[in-house]
Amino acid sequence: MTIVNSWNEWDPLKHVIVGAVENANIPPMEPALEPKISKDSGMAGSHGPRSKESIDKANIQLENFVKILNSLNIKVDRPTPIDFSQSIETPDWSNDGMFGCMPPRDVILTVGNEMLEAPMSYRCRWFEYLAYRPLLEKYYSEDKNMRWESAPKPRLTNQSYKSNYLPEGITEEERYKKIENRDMILTEKEPLFDAAEILRFGKDLFYHNNFTSNLSGLDWLRRHYSNHRVHQINLPGDLIPTHIDACFTPIKPGIIIINPNRKISSEQRKIFDDNKWEIHEAAPSIHNSPPPMCYSSIWLSMNVLIIDPKTICVEATEEKMIKQMESFGLDVIPVPFRDVYAFGGSLHCATTDVYREGECEDYFPNQ
């Protein structure tokens, strides 16, 4: 029986993992986290269990999302949360708390019949894979063709991070310049990436190099997926550049939306132009700020979940994004989800594909 199969972001979705917010924790400061926390987010200097009220509100929206997916005949599995508030340690470091398991897209990358555990750069997320192990064990037992893989588990010593990356007194202009020059917080000591830095286009994978993914990770993926073409993408224009699925989003074959503040170079855009893919600027969010205690930006409006080439889920309040998706000929399912944002993202973040219909195709023959 085939359980695992997913080659891209848009083929008909039949089986998915949706994250959970139980036991979620605000992690303490650590080297990878420091440059990501903005001073006005409410997150700096605060750590400990998320409030029961915030968890209850998020659960209402997550359960509604699961019901919507089930109504579309999509099977939904959920992770098994561990106690993310407990302290953790390895021989190299200790951390007074973890994160959570709402965004499975960060942890597990599905390519074809393989599910890969990513080598994430945050110490607070070192043990997050444990929440997904019961599901991966089950898939592996039932699907004899499934490949269950894990990238090299990183040590995350201080050598994996640049010291004094944001010195006191650094200006915004200087920070933008660092990012434009691809000077990120991570060193190249070991392969590091979140699974949410990779977009799947059949034979081609696109990898976002930023605060949670280094070039060693890109090199590892190229060696691991030797039958694929793995391309580097950089999108400067953001002080906190992270996951690709909130700044560069395929909608269906031939159409991508891009965050208008995060430009792609002509060199990196060439593969899309040569293969007649349209790149449209994403409609702006209707919100001026993210919800309280949230790591992410207002551009979670772009973090959509494609059900099939004609159907897409968009956060319910994002009226401009809904209209833009309708202009591309898609049927839009509005899904209330802003109460979940603080736990790690929106609809794409909150899911990881298990099965989509379809096979590996070449969408970029001209390269």
Going across the biggest sheet, name each strand in turn.
4-1-19
β-strand number: 19
Low-confidence spans? none
CATH class: Alpha Beta
How many alpha or pi helices? 7
**SSE arrangement, N to C:** EEEHEEEHEEHEHEEHEEEHEEEHEE
Q: Please give the CATH architecture.
A: 5-stranded Propeller
Q: How is this structure best described in words?
A:
Helices cover 19% and strands 21% of the residues. The chain is of the alpha/beta class and 367 residues long. The chain has one domain (13-356): L-arginine/glycine Amidinotransferase, Chain A (5-stranded Propeller). The strands form seven sheets. A three-stranded mixed β-sheet has the order 4-1-19, with helices on one face. It has a three-stranded mixed β-sheet with strand order 7-8-9. It has a three-stranded mixed β-sheet with strand order 10-11-12, with helices on one face. The two termini are 36 Å apart.
